[in-house]
Design goal:
The complex is a heterodimer. Chain A is mostly helical. Chain A has helices spanning 2-20, 23-68, 72-85, 90-102, 106-119, 124-136, 140-152, 159-176, 180-192, 198-210, 214-227, 232-245, 248-261, 266-281, 290-310, 328-336, 341-346, 350-369, 374-385. In chain B, helix 23 (485-491) links the parallel strand 1 and strand 2 (499-503). Classes of the chains: A mainly alpha, B mainly alpha.
């Protein structure tokens, strides 16, 4: 019975075997096997990457803690370990770069940062760090480029402040490189984008001072003083800016306040002295009587004479107002005999002639003997103030 | 109407119906189905499956290596001394037991075994080899033995291909070719570089460019890389630095790198070929301990300050490329890696030589780049460029695959501007290595294993005999087919040769004997043109640059074969005869 069944079954089996051995059938089987293998590897990959991710996160967290504690060497090792599990993780690389910067291994850091920059050229932090490294390495052009990119880049959080920080660093770099024009342009853009926050305005004022833009500096300090009338730094800054602008009464006001508030502020005290002297020795200031003006002219003339005696000028060093080649010493001596209250009253042009001579003497001696101090400095500043008038 | 009466038109219609029927028959679903599964086409389809399966296997292999590293060496980048010593030693013991008792065919790198499958075993590689290689190599590399995953991947791919070939009942010819197809797939997936994998398999395993296999090799390599990238991403094994050649004078430094790399290759290869047979000759019980001792010594090297030598070391190549080591330390690492790899390989631990070769090259390159940077800072490109070129240098010098080495660096760097330094450095390395060690490392290893596989390098450089080497000037006059038989006989007056060449018109050559001419003249055909009297079948001709083997096809049927110019087929350069050809071969054989 069994044999009969086998005989019946064997042709059928042979038929199945025949079809199973056909290439199309084999190909179908192979496809099924491949799909199953693929699915298995997909499952395996999920486990594998899940495990790596968790390991990476664990090491990264440790690294962050060490970075925060300025324990850079440990942070580098931990971030490196984290990167073993996720080589392309952006934040792992970025933090590793920061830790490397902390260790002053800027070469390695920039390798990571450049890689990150390639991936995201508009990442603010990467641009800022690259700018800082370029600045350290004295690659100014690169640094400026990266700072610019950082200013307009995307920041993950606190975008306005981060951009402002980048711009402030750029301005600092420009000022360091004496690139005053660009620095002023950046500062004006910065000032336009900040609110009246006193600290910020104070910093802007300082930068404007460094950029020799006294008008904007004064405005910034005044904004600070509107918020806090007793801010010594702002008072001193405003006084300095007003002084540089030749607004001596204003300078006197602010500098006076500054020195009253902070008696140790020597610079403000010196400036105040000079401003006082300028205001005292300026015969052209408004609202003074003719007598006072004559007195001031006589004083100024005497100051110039003393300056000539301490800093003798060579003969014919400068032509006179009429093109004469006599020396300033001769001119001063020639005028001296007429310089008295009566002479000034009789000759209305004498005051101008005397002041012109005094100014020329101060300018010449300034060139020859260096910047004066005290009344001579005041006279020089008065000369500058009335230049062209 | 006219057409119906025209018999020619009827014929056209009949012919048309015949063509149509033939076309329908040829394009019937049954025929198309059969054509699709014809062996050559089926082989191409199979190549894609081989690629996909190899890619999947290599992905699993990578997972296995990483897992074994995690559990044996720990999760941190900084290893503890205990793990440094114990992991490779204990894994070595286990590997030895597995290799001796379960997987004896898994020793070594796997390249030679694949070659042996092609030339000796008709493409058959037992699947057990793949399983054994997978387990033992993953354990070895993961535990810190200084070996790489590429060659094992190559062998795993070849094994899978062989298994598929057997199951699909391929013919013997196809079976022989299937192992290289799988090998290319495995290597491409492991290295994430399909072009280099294809070139390496052609250059080192197959040894010749054949159109029949090229398509399959390329298909399998590409499919495996696609699968690998699907799972592991398309990133290169290391971050590629900015590649630049700052100044043409820098080529001198690259030439120096080639020289140093060539010498290092010779030291490395000599170490392996000297120590391997000595280790194999030791008593059997020592075989159980050799991988463990090798592992222990590697652990000692790691403890002494060079943990970078453990494992494949791709992350350290990456760091070297980005200037994270001093040139002195890089040089030390190159030396330490040579020692560590020697220890791993000669102890019979299964694993590949590719990664260590690249590691040594990268360290040497970066070291020379760093040194150059100290002396000529303004004339030196990035250290990474030197490291990349260094990899190619060792590949050319140690593995002796010059073409693959150039393309590998190009493929990995993705930058064409590196080609000049690579060619300069690789040429120096190859020439020095070839000069100091005439036999390539893979050939030496094969011979040590008692196999005689064709050496691709020797084949490449073998002198080839050409037709011009056996060519002789034509003995006697050459007759013109346009002339009459009487004129031809008159020309033959005084000539002594019996076999005479006839230049036919408008082209081609024929030959005739003096006796045949006399016989034709006796039949009264003296006024007939000689060409019309000769048989239609003409004498084949050769060109001087043809290989001499080609002459062998004809010289037994024709007593003399004309050798003609390639520019003018009617211009006779000389003749070859059977005797002259055999004489030349005899002289060649005698050296």
């Amino acid at each position: 019975m069994l044999e009969k069944q086998e005989v019946m079954a064997s042709p059928r089996l042979a038929k199945y075997r025949f079809y199973l051995r056909q290439r199309p059938t084999l190909l179908v089987v192979l496809s099924v096997v491949t799909v199953l293998f693929f699915l298995s590897v997909t499952g395996l990959a999920k486990i594998y990457f899940g495990q790596r991710e968790s390991l990476g996160t664990r090491w990264f967290t440790r690294g962050l803690a060490d970075l925060k504690a300025a324990n850079y060497a440990a942070a580098v090792t931990e971030f490196r370990t984290a990167l073993l599990y996720s080589r392309d993780d952006y934040s792992y690389q970025l933090n590793l770069a920061e830790a490397l910067i902390g260790l002053k291994r800027t070469g390695e850091a920039s390798a990571y940062l450049l890689n990150l920059w390639d991936r995201e050229p508009d990442n603010g932090l990467v641009n800022l760090e690259l700018a800082r490294i370029a600045r350290q390495q004295r690659r100014t052009d690169d640094a400026i480029r990266y700072y610019h990119d950082a200013e307009y880049a995307a920041w993950p959080r606190d975008e306005e402040n981060q951009r402002r920080e980048a711009r402030l660093e750029l301005i600092d770099l420009l000022l360091q490189n004496k690139d005053i024009g660009d620095a002023q342009a950046e500062l004006i853009a910065l000032a336009a984008n900040v609110d009246d926050q006193p600290d910020m305005q104070k910093e802007i004022g300082d930068l404007f001072l460094r950029a020799a833009d006294y008008e904007h500096a004064l405005a910034a300090y005044r904004t600070v003083l509107r918020a806090n009338r007793h801010d010594e730094t702002a008072m001193a800054g405003a006084g300095y800016a007003a002084f540089q602008l030749g607004r001596y009464p204003l300078a006197q006001h602010y500098l006076g306040l500054a020195t009253t508030t902070d008696s140790k502020d020597i610079r403000s005290a010196q400036l105040l002295q000079t401003a006082d002297a300028v205001l005292h020795l300026d015969p052209f200031r408004p609202q003074i009587s003719a007598v006072d003006r004559s007195k001031i002219v006589l004083d100024d003339f005497a100051v110039a004479g003393r300056r000539l005696s301490t800093c003798p000028l060579p003969k014919s060093s400068a032509p006179g107002p009429n093109g004469s080649s006599s020396s300033l010493d001769d001119e001063w001596n020639a005028l001296k005999s007429r310089m008295n209250t009566v002479g000034l009253r009789r000759d209305p042009n004498l005051a101008d002639t005397a002041m012109d001579l005094a100014f020329r003497i101060e300018r010449e001696t300034n060139v020859l003997c260096g910047t004066p101090s005290g009344a001579d400095l005041a006279l020089l500043l008065i000369a500058k103030l009335h230049e062209g008038t | 109407m006219a057409d119906e009466l025209n018999p020619e038109s009827e014929l056209h219609v009949q012919n048309g119906r015949g063509h149509a029927a033939a076309w329908i028959h040829e394009h019937s679903p049954r025929q198309l189905w059969r054509m699709a599964f014809r062996e050559d086409r089926f082989f191409l389809i199979l190549s894609v499956f081989i690629g996909v399966l190899s890619g999947l296997s290599v992905v699993c292999f990578r997972f296995a290596i990483d897992w074994s590293r995690l559990y044996l060496l720990g999760t941190g980048a900084v290893l503890t001394p205990m793990r440094m010593l114990l992991a490779p030693s204990l894994a070595g013991l286990l590997i030895a037991v597995l290799v001796i008792h379960l997987f004896p065919t898994t020793r070594g790198s796997g390249v030679n075994q694949t070659k042996a499958a092609l030339y000796i075993f008709n493409g058959n590689i037992p699947i057990r080899t793949a399983i054994g290689k997978f387990i033992t190599a993953a354990l070895a590399i993961g535990s810190g033995h200084s070996l790489g995953p590429e060659d094992p991947s190559l062998q795993i791919g070849a094994c899978l291909a062989s298994l598929l070939g057997r199951k699909m009942r391929l013919s013997r010819d196809r079976m022989r070719l299937i192992a290289p197809v799988g090998a290319a797939a495995g290597l491409a997936a492991a290295f994430n570089a399909p072009i280099s994998a294809v070139l390496f398999v052609i250059e080192e395993v197959i040894g010749r460019w054949t159109a029949g296999i090229l398509g399959s090799v390329v298909l399998s390599a590409i499919s495996s890389v696609v699968v690998m990238r699907w799972f592991l991403g398309s990133e290169s094994l290391f971050r590629i630095p900015a590649v630049e050649l700052k100044n043409p004078t820098e080529l001198i430094a690259y030439a120096a790198l080639g020289v140093v790399g060539g010498l290092a290759s010779v030291v490395f290869a000599s170490g392996i070929t000297t120590l391997r047979p000595k280790c194999k000759a030791l008593p059997l019980w020592t075989q159980y301990l050799q991988p463990a001792i090798g592992g222990l010594l590697i652990g000692v090297i790691a403890m002494l300050g060079a943990p970078q030598v453990m494992g494949a070391g791709y992350e350290y190549m990456d760091q070297a490329m980005h200037g994270q080591f001093t040139w002195q330390f890089l040089a030390i690492l190159a030396g330490a890696k040579i020692v560590a790899t020697l220890l791993s390989f000669v102890s019979g631990t299964p694993g590949g030589m590719f990664a260590p070769t690249l590691f040594i090259g990268a360290m040497l390159g970066a070291s020379i780049g760093g040194l150059q940077h100290i002396f000529f800072p303004h004339l030196t490109g990035s250290t990474g460029t030197y490291a990349l070129v260094g990899m190619g240098v060792l590949f050319a010098g140690f593995l002796r695959a010059p073409m693959t080495s150039v393309f590998m660096v190009l493929e990995v760097s993705g930058n064409y501007s590196i080609i000049l330094p690579v060619i300069v450095a690789n040429t120096f390395a190859y020439v020095i290595s070839r000069g100091l060690q005439p036999i390539a490392i893979f050939d030496l290893l094969t011979r040590q294993d008692g196999l005689d596989l064709p050496s691709m390098e020797e084949q490449r450089e073998e002198d080839v005999l050409r037709v011009e080497d056996a060519m002789q000037p034509a003995d006697g006059p050459v007759l013109e087919g346009e002339k009459t038989l009487d004129q031809a006989l008159a020309e033959l007056d005084g000539a002594k040769n019996d076999d005479i060449l006839v230049r036919m018109s408008p082209g081609g050559w024929n030959s005739v004997t003096r006796e045949q001419l006399t016989q034709l003249a006796g039949e009264g055909k003296g006024a007939s043109k000689l060409g019309s009297l000769l048989p239609i079948r003409q004498v084949p001709y050769l060109h001087p640059d043809h290989p001499l083997e080609m002459a062998l096809r004809y010289v037994d049927r024709w007593p003399i074969v004309p050798v003609v110019s390639r520019a003018d087929f009617r211009q006779l350069e000389g003749v070859v005869s059977q005797r002259a050809v055999l004489e030349r071969y005899r002289e060649f054989g005698e050296g």
